[in-house]
Design goal:
Biased composition (Low complexity): 605-626
Region (Disordered): 419-442, 545-637
Biased composition (Basic and acidic residues): 421-432, 579-591
Oligomer: single chain
Protein name: RING-type E3 ubiquitin transferase
CATH architecture of the domain at 201-412: Roll
Radius of gyration: 26 Å
Helix content: 25-40%
Enzyme class: transferase
Number of strands: 19
Number of helices: 18
Length: 637
Amino acid sequence: MEWDCPDCSSIYAVGEPSTNIVSDGQSNGSDNLIAAIRAIEADESLTEQQKNKKRQLLMNKGKGVADLDDDDHMKDKAAAHLYCVICIMLPERPITTPCGHNFCLKCFQKWTSRKNLTCPECRGPIPRSVASQPRINAAAVVAIRMAKTSKLISSEALKKVHHFVHNQERPDKAFTTERAKKTGKANACSGKIFVTVPPDHFGPILAENDPDRKKGVLVGEVWEDRMECRQWGAHLPHVAGIAGQSEYGAQSVALSGGYEDDEDHGEWFLYTGSGGRDLSGNKRTNKYQAFDQKFDKMNEALRVSCKKGYPVRVVRSHKEKRSSYAPSEGVRYDGVYRIEKCWRKIGKQEHKVCRYLFVRCDNEPAPWSSDEHGDRPRSLPVIEELKAATDLTERKEDPSWDYDEEESCWKWKRSPPLSRRTMDTRNPEDKKGKRKAKTSAENLSGRDRLLKGLSCTICRNIMRIPVTAACGHSFCKSCLEVAFSGQTFVRERTCAGRRNLRAQKIVMKCPDPQCQIDISESIKNPQVNRGLMGTIESLKLEAEDDSKVVQNPPENKAKSVYKRRKTNNVPLLSNPDGVGKDDKSSEEQKSKSVSGGTEDEMEVESSTTSESNLKTTATKDSSSSTLQAQLNDDDLE
DNA sequence: GGGCCCGCAGGG
DNA sequence: CCCTGCGGGCCC
């Protein structure tokens, strides 16, 4: 069948839905491999060079990346394990199936939208819940980014959810009622604001406005809830979805699933205005729309930001259940977007709603994107509903925030609107006790945070045998098994010894401390994410090589580990069980071995070095030694 | 899990 | 000062 990849628009032929074009080192679908290669050859949109590369990758994935020697393909070697078999590309937004295979979000959605509920790679079942709400695999994003770049990525998401203000630290007088004291959170909105930007500040919050951390608000930062998001200035209102002033513009919006007309495509989304609801009876919100929305108040503020081309900060909340881009927990800062158009249409509830087209324009890559760079100007998506739109507004003047071709970044082209508010009173002055409470996560460098992204939150080591749960979090297989060992999936119940009640399903929450998602389905038969495992393994090898360059003067040329592996006929992945070695924690030793664990572990001697590594910069070397250091820690523990 | 209740901040 | 609001805890 033919397949046009929505990410890259290339057309590919792939085998039957379930065919095994490429599998973990033991392709049993040679016919399909041939078919896929023919398809690449027949593809007229590709240059010879591109075809060669794709062919190589296809073969390469089947054989375990042993063959590539070209330096240009060093990165591919690491990332090749994570290629999407549908489009044979590196996933922009990796999704992992319960069977442990990785795909582009868009390819996956296209696949499942055709009522294919089996894995394109192994025919394993895809649960409806996964098909309807695929979660981006954060560890795979990190792995791909690391494989693609050796640069330090400053914007990488902190993997830890912040919880900065503890109840006991809030001022006593803020609790005006007994109830508020009891619940703790009710008055959290009186918690301190940590950044020094005025409330009507537009655009990213920079390091200079972050007196404590001196980092600013980073793309991908996650807070426990709207209250804490507010404290970091990303989005101030703790109930309302839009922050703004009708005469002045809107500074930020929250996507949290409150309006069913919202439509999220990650780099762009359609947002619905506020209002039109019956809030009589002291309600704060109401699912049902009773009136038409108008371009007034916050809706007008958004329209001003549209006309002026201001950057609008966007946070996504876990409450947005229909979006694959929403975090599975907490509230996440996703960077700035511009509102390119706004209009009105008849919404799903048959009343008019205000509509806004947001398009991302941030200098940092989005949290779900494997890209190593931020946005470039992109052409506007085709919006079907515009045909029936009324009151259309498009920007006429040059945008205030725009892409500078010379500097290759987004910046203010006109001076940002002058703040009408003073920075005031709420600015914290006493932050004493809190500073020392700084967690190690906050002190990590960008590179270290990347490493953290490849670490299992249970054992805190870099994952050896990763399993990705339905919520998109990944763990060592052995850790997951230990964490849920001895638990059954249903509890038999009897009623006074008379008759059996219906068996009760036991909820197994994701071990990620902040994730509340039930992953019992993923635990029943955890499948190793071999793509992720291979990439992590390659990154480790690369880092080992690099650190050799630092430690030893170059002596030995052009004998990459990949080559050696090939000649020694050693399987790609060392010790897939993650057991049996003396460097294992006792917990890991307790766990059972995983399937296919017959390969021997391969030691990589320190004499191994590669010519290509001689070119590495000092920066890279030092960051790789960080990796090396962590790897050693990993081994020692 | 759904409905209810309510404090709070900010706009107007 | 009143109104609005894509929260969040609690109770059922």
